[in-house]
Write a structure and sequence with these properties.
With about 350 residues, the protein is an alpha/beta fold. It is built from eleven helices and eight strands.
Amino acid sequence: MKGILLVNLGSPESPEPKDVKKYLGEFLMDERVIDLPLIARTALVKGIILNTRPKASAAAYKKIWWEDGSPLIVLSERLQKKVQEEVDFPVALAMRYGSMTIKKGLQELVDKGCDEVFLIPLYPQFAMATVETIVVLAEEIRAEYFPKLKIESIKPFYNNPEYISALANSIKDDLKDKKYEHLLFSYHGVPERHIRKSDITKSHCKIDGSCCETASKAHEFCYRHQCKEVTRLVGEYLKLEPDTYSTSFQSRLGFDPWLQPYTDRTIERLGKKGVKTMAIATPAFVSDCLETLEEIAMEGEEIFHEMGGKDFTTIPCLNTNKDWVSFLANQINEWSKNPAQA
């Protein structure tokens, strides 16, 4: 019997500092998030970050926390229900970090009689800190606890025409009655070294002005290329003028170089340039979360207004968008017929 496991990032149990600290500890100690040697990673995370960051992060979570819980968890659960309505296979939900573990998700499917699982990390683009860490952990759990279970993973779908149309139309619909001078596509940032580590050619990714536009096998695992492709494809789909939209990256940590241009500085630049109305989309996420609801919708708008901007529109993530749900259902049904092609 076949089953589906949707996996998103995760969330603290509550916006209280103790729960945020526990969550951040698990998240930041992941070797694919902070890819330093264990001793250095432990010193950084437990010696510095967890002694300074949880209180501020808890305050940010409190700003966006819903009455029924974490927005990311609530929206992911709604997505699970919508997808379940569209397919004939059991659909379970798990989180990479927190109490809704991948092990629990797989156990739920096994208990329902599933011996084949289609694993769907809820990220359009490949990255070490998102898709790879989910796939690797799922395989480790399978090998230890469910050795007879077969797991196949969805391929990054950043350039799938059905996904692009769902994303583009959701942006178009949200901006239908709104004026904007510039549309910014903001993606979650990663350290530049992650891009080079993921380069299967070991030579293509130079993070310069051309490598992402030059055809290469490296693009299969290049987060930067895949983000830029989403922007390009959506821009083409919506017939946007070249100077009216751009790409940026948010949420950097530490002092190592991260992907640029940075979102906060881009918003500053646009405001200083005289842009009075702008909109911002966050296509690295499919469900609204701390990064979209607080970092972009609140902090981003504050920066824009400080720089002289007037109207700042944050476009919601796909969440339970009908076309997005249909895309996932179609991917699931295609896998059920041709598992090796997923």
